[in-house]
Fold this protein.
Amino acid sequence: MDEVGLIQDAKKGDLNAFNRLVLAYQDMSFNVAYRLLSDPASAEDATQDAFIKAFRNLHRFRGGSFKAWLMRIVTNTAYDELRRRKRRPTTPLEPLNADQEAIETPYWIADPSEKPEEAALRAELGQAIQNCLARLSDDFRTVVVLVDIQGMDYAEAAGVVKKPLGTIKSRLARARLRMRDCLRGFGELLPATFRLEKERQS
Amino acid sequence: MTNQMYSKDWEALSAYLDNQLGAKERARLEARLQTEPALRGALEDIRQTRAVLRQAPRVRAPRNFTLTPEMAGRRATRRPRLYPAFQLAFAVASILFAFVVVGDLTTTSPILSDVSYAPVAEQAAEAPAEAETFADGAASESIVVEESAAGETQDEAPYPSSEEAPSVEKAAESEEIAGVAPEDGAAGAPDKVTPPADHEMMSVTDDGEEPAAAEPAEAPPAEVPPRGDDEQTTQSPNTPGPPPQPAVEESASAEEDLEDAPTQPTQPQDISAEPRADNREFFRAVELILGILVVASGVGTLYLRQKAR
């Protein structure tokens, strides 16, 4: 059954139809939540909460991009957690410890065609990126996650965060600048293929 | 230049990379890119940064986030444990009740079909009236009412009364859908079964008059369908929801026609009712008990649901 049909059934209260939508979008949702929150446990809670909210608010979805609508709920749910953290900071935001080693085990999707060493490198990269993302402000981080990591275009991202295109444009530009500088700081940790050139030929 | 400060240029380059620049702006930028190496360098920086970010591994969901029914329908509170028991009791009682009523109708003879209106009428009047607030009760009540209507409309046709026949048939058409034949019976057979019928109905209505007795029976089924519509998540079929309502309004006019006829159908009852009295009384007793069970379990179900909210 296509997505539109599933959504229509889910709107009528068909939980099975909604759960099929959940299965289709849970990776993306968890990705966004994890990238925003930098903590797998919080990301799990946020993802589950987001799906519950989505089901209960399906009557408010009136067509258009279901993906954008759902991601909006996910980002808002993650924001709630971010705000909560600011009021009561207990969770460490840095995914890397002092030795630059990963504290949590990331749930990377394994690429079957990837060799183990490549997979390991990619995991390192993932940690570095997450580390740099965590240093961004919430607004900047969201745009970078939606556009550069999730692959949304500006219009979709604008629909998710409910901001004008111009805001997306400027936030993304600023975020990319900061990410560039942060990733350069990792320098040697990043494999050569991923490393950003420090020296730019003028 | 290795450290690029944020600038309008940087924003333009970033947007240019994503094809988000207008035609005029793009043309201007491309012209500058030809002549300004620093600008080219900055563009390459953004391009590389974006490429690295795109290489970020996708994170797989660590588990399934599918919703259980509890997550889906309820708020933070949990339902009391007794709730399912009451739900089951309500469902079982309703089904048994329906069976007994149908059994009652089918075992009594066509001539005495009017008499069979009485127990159905009193149950239909009593239970729906009290079940006004019972969303779950709506569906089974309208099923019961419809079944009795189906039985009765067949029985009404051969009825000998000339005065009553046209209005009865007129009512029968709308009643088939509305399932409000009980009012017909309520109006039709108060004499014979007056003590229990009136007793039941008086407890429900303000006045015990025959036409008025018919109206409360009519009103609850009208209320029943909309309530039945409210509940969609868990309970028994709500299919008879909307249709009965307009037909109920139609039969109201037919109802008034029957006001003159009530005494007539009672005559044959006096003659031949007695041999079957025991049978009917048994059925009536069972229906009464089941009706009370239906009401009680419905009350319990609703109470527990309200408590959980």
In short: Chain A touches chain B through 59 residues (CB under 8 Å). Helices of chain A lie at 3-11, 15-37, 40-56, 66-87, 116-135, 138-149, 154-161, 165-186. The first helix of chain A runs from residue 3 to 11.
